Every structure is written in C-alpha cells, then in structure tokens.
Amino acid sequence: MKLRSSFVGLLTLALMAVAGCGGADEPTTASGASGASAGGAGLEKTTINVGTMPVVDTAPLQIAMEKGLFKAEGLEVKPSVLAGGAEAIPKLKGGSLDISFGNYVSFFSATAKGAIDLKIVSDGFQSAPKTHVIMVPKDSPIQTVADLKDKTIAVNTKRNISTMLIRVAGKAHNIELDEDKNFAEFPFPEMEGALKAGTVDAAQVVEPFGTFIAQNIGARVVWDTSQGPTADFPIAGYAATSEFVAANPKTVAAFQRAMSKAQELAADRANVVAVIPKYTKIPATAAGSLAIGAFPTTLDATRLQRVADSMHEYGLLDAPLKAQDLIFAGK
C-alpha cells in the first residue's frame, strides 16, 4: 500500500508538471497545440516586420496581434506604420519590411514593371458602400463626377487604387481624367487641410478619414466609388518579396493562418469597431458609425484578376497580368 501510494503521488506530480508547462495564458492553435509546439521551433524566422496603415482595412492585423493569433503560430509581429501603399515597395525590397499591407494596384504595377518581384500572401480588404468616396468642400460648385473635369483631386498616391477608382467613375460620366494633370498626392491625414485651403478641388478618401473630414469641415460626398464596375472591389492585401517567401515558406504560411483567422473574426462588425480606436485617432464613440467593407479569408485569383484587368484597361499595366502567378498558396 505504501509503494502504491508513493507511485500515485509521483504520477500526480508528473502530470501537474506537464500541465504547467503550457502556461495558463499561452495561446493555442485551432487544434489545441500551444504556440511553442505548433510554430516557433519549425519556422525559418519567428520575428517579422510588417508594414501597416492606420485605416479600417488593417483591422484584422490588429485583431490578430491583440488576440495572440500570431503568437499561437510561433510568430512575433513588429508593425511599422506607412503613409501609403507605394511606401511599402522600397521597404520590402530593401528588407526593412518582411511583409506589408498595400493596395493591389501598387503591388501589381511594381511587379509588372520589374521594380520588385512580389507574392501576395494574404487578402486584406474589399470595398463596400461608402468605404472609398470622392469628397468636396460643402460650398463647392462640384455636384457630380462630370464636374471634376479639369479639376485637381487629392489621392494618397498616384497610379494606385485611388486614381483607378476615380478614373472608372469618370468614364461612367463620360470624362477622361489624366494621371498627371488631374491628381495631386497628399497623405490621407492632410487631405482635410488641402480641401479646406482650396489647394485641391476634391479628394478620394477612405475610412476613417472620410468620417473625420465630414465631421470637421462639413465636406460632402459627390461619388461613392464602390459601385457599378468597382462594386465589391478587391482593394488591398499583404505582400512579401518572392525571395523572402522562398526562404521562409513556413513563416509566411504561419502568417497566412493567423490572418485568415483574424479576417474571419473581422466578419463580426463588433470586433472591428472595438479595435479601430486602438490604432487610429478616431474615438470609440465614433467608431460605430464608420463604413466598413469586407475582409476575405482566402486569396481568390478570380477576384484579384478584376484588379489586373482594370489596370490594363486604364493603362496602368502595359500588358495583361495573370493574378494567379502572384499568389503564394502556402505550405
């Protein structure tokens, strides 16, 4: 009896020690494995630098960091805030960023021109009503897109998703807008000042800046670009260089898994509204009124081909581009 009691005691202590190794606060994967056993040891790189922007589009990245989804995959993500998608290209090429958020037009254009060899590793954001709008000052004589002929429109970067959406709108109203003559570059936070000062006639803005500008200076929307041929349009995603993907396929796949779970969580508007005040300047009291688009959980070549085809149509690509060739399917 004494031997049996000693054995039971030792066995109990052993089981308690094993149970304690995981730690009560350590995140788990969908299969129940802890981050240490699921990811870290098998990844080529466990700390990655990721480019992001303080816009609604990046809410899932913030959710993934906040809820430990990257940690559960053995990853530590160090975010770096960018002014625009075009800024991601040189930083990815130079290696200061491993993966970056950015708009598909900038990514596709840079790859097609041979400036960089990119792979799309995660979808990010899809447009919805009021997420991408053209705004003018409240007392502006501009009433329709047709009135934008010969006017100056603020965009965060030329030859990117903003200018293409505006040009599509212009075509629907029988006007041609020129990439160099009609557009002026301003970071999103500076567009309010540019409109107020009359430096530009209009601005193409995204949330939360559309809400800010409307509340602060009474600017009004003359056109919602998320309609017609660009309704439910793929706007942005996350990319890495082909070199980084080839050298770190398990790391990239871990990033993809975490982002897919985060994008799924972002389907619940409450999760997005809750996280927005934590990485943007919009207060929690106003977050609920924002226009929020969709967050696709998988990379769909057919969807992304819409972007490539529109770019070719509007002269942003000299030749057709096959979106499937730029997608990293994961391991």
CATH fold description of the largest domain: D-Maltodextrin-Binding Protein, domain 2
Distance between the termini: 54 Å
Tally of separate domains = 2
Count of DSSP H/I helices: 14
What CATH architecture label of the largest domain applies? 3-Layer(aba) Sandwich
- Class from secondary-structure proportions: alpha/beta
Q: What proportion of the residues form beta strands (DSSP E)?
A: 15-25%
- Indicate the radius of gyration in whole angstroms: 23 Å
Low-confidence stretches: 1-39
CATH homologous superfamily of the largest domain, by name?
Periplasmic binding protein-like II
Tell me the total number of β-strands.
10
Report on the structure:
The chain is of the alpha/beta class and 331 residues long. It has two domains: 40-127 and 233-326, Periplasmic binding protein-like II (D-Maltodextrin-Binding Protein, domain 2), CATH 3.40.190.10; 132-230, 3-Layer(aba) Sandwich (D-Maltodextrin-Binding Protein, domain 2). The chain is 40% helix and 17% strand. It has helices at residues 2-21, 35-38, 59-66, 69-72, 88-94, 104-112, 161-172, 191-197, 209-217, 242-247, 249-265, 269-279, 284-287, 301-313; strands spanning 47-52, 76-81, 99-103, 118-126, 132-136, 153-155, 183-185, 202-206, 220-224, 234-241. The strands form two sheets. It has a five-stranded mixed sheet, with helices on both faces. α3 (59-66) crosses α11, α3 packs across α12 and α6 crosses α14. The longest helix has 20 residues, at 2-21. The protein is globular and about 60 Å long. It starts with a helix and ends in an 18-residue tail after the last helix. Mean pLDDT is 88; it is low at 1-39. Residues 1-24 form the signal peptide.
